[in-house]
Amino acid sequence: MKKSQQIYVSEIIEGSGKGPLPRFVYRLLEKITHQEEINYILRTYGHLKGVEFMGALIGYFNIKANFVFPERLPENGRCIFVCNHPLGSLDGICISYLLGKHYGDIRYVVNGLLYRLKPLRNIFLPVVLSGDEKKRRKAVEILKKAMRSDVPVGVFPAGACSRKINGKIQDLPWRKTFLKQAIQYERDIVPLHFVGFNSPKFYNAELIRRKMGIKNNYISLFLPDQMFRSKEADYKIVVGNPIPWQSIDRNKHLENTARDIRQICYDLQEEYGKLSLP
């Protein structure tokens, strides 16, 4: 029987050139990142791949995830699905699972811990922003291949988990890359809104990080903990109307178009809120 993958914080840190660290620091990080429970999941469900593995994760956490306005999903899934990124892990898993079930296949652009999980490698597309140039070129080629295909592709245009900004939980400004890709590969854009939040503990840690000037990598350590705090949650993903790629105004600054589509995403939250009123 093939041995299942196991994740070790010490190997990740030392492999990134930031270690070694004192043993007590590793023990603390192992606890914060739920290393033992993640490895239990990999031992138990590691034989599954892609959408099946995601379904097992959703079952393990005993969470519910459903589309609102699923009739808006285009018949042809060759689109770029863009969404806010409130959770940092389970949102990508839930959306990929639902789109994968609906269309039969899915690719989703992610970074961080999720891409380290081998059972998800056939679905998740890596983002390498710095470091090894060979890895970066390989990641670019993998993304181009997915974009040229007929498979649906999901993206979090903010590139990072939502933060508390001006008293509201919201994404950072959206990057314009998805618009360039929509034009280049002739893919319509489907806005989604994921209804959900992390715990106050996460946002308080982010405020401390900002005040102390600590790099973003620090806050990502809390994301696995947020995932394990989400057991038995009930998530809704609100589907917006598709935006034809031909309608993207190339003469307009794409940063402004990205901002407008980000607003459409958050307008979906309001639409869902009105739907939920008695």
Automatic annotation (TrEMBL):
One term of GO molecular function:
acyltransferase activity
- Phospholipid/glycerol acyltransferase domain segment(s): 79-197
Which UniProt key words apply to this protein?
Acyltransferase, Transferase
Note whether Ubl conjugation occurs among the keywords: no
Question: ATP-binding: is it a keyword of this entry?
Answer: no
Instruction: Give the matching Pfam families.
Output: Acyltransf_2 (PF19576)
SUPFAM superfamilies in alphabetical order: Glycerol-3-phosphate (1)-acyltransferase
Which InterPro entries does the entry mention?
ACT14924-like_Acyltransf_dom, Plipid/glycerol_acylTrfase
Query: Which SMART domains has this protein been placed in?
Result: PlsC
Q: Mind telling me what this protein is named? A: Glycerol acyltransferase
Q: Name the lineage.
A: Bacteria, Pseudomonadati, Bacteroidota, Bacteroidia, Bacteroidales
